[in-house]
What we know:
Elements: H1 3-18, H2 25-32, H3 36-42, H4 46-64, H5 74-91, H6 93-97, H7 99-104, H8 107-133, H9 141-165, H10 173-187, H11 193-209
Helix pairs in contact: 1-2, 1-4, 4-8, 5-10, 8-9, 9-10, 10-11
Amino acid sequence: MKTRVKIVVSALELFNQHGERNITTNHIADHLSISPGNLYYHFRNKQEIIHEIFKLYAQELLERFTPVDHQQESLTLLKRYLDSIFSLMWKYRFFYANLPEILSRDEALHHDYRAVQDRLQTNLVVIMRQFVELELLDLDEEALVSLVRTLHLIASCWLSYQAALTPRTEISETLISQGMLQMIDVVKPVATTQGREQLLLLEDGIRHLA
């Protein structure tokens, strides 16, 4: 693994473990047993490392939430997207937990974030239309767009919301699972009988893991 990649991987690990604000470039260099000068050869500062992590996050986010052939079993589709939410929130948990602060101090990153989220919203609307076509959801276009916005809001802000309520709360897989259950609760009222049955199956699986 090249040094530049090692720096990004190590930074992500340290940010997740200790919080981005508590980690400096010196911490990252020490973790890798390299000199600060070696690190600065690849990244001028910590913010550049965060940008690189965001690029990885954005790529994975859009790949996971690109609409796919919905001829496959509907429960498989639901689980695929739910698993993707969990995986991303866990892998990039430092970013979710401190999103407003991280974006507020970096205008360029904020611009890139908005652009990615706009593309994501478009993809999510298409995905939700697929679930309407599969007769898992029963709602019109206006309600569908509103639902997508609400689900996106929960996924984006769940960890920062929890951190604001209890600042010393440790981000855990259980905490993320609670956010996923919250999203399922939001979808239930507009689910068809078949859709509700499948949501309950997914809900039971999440509660078992949590």
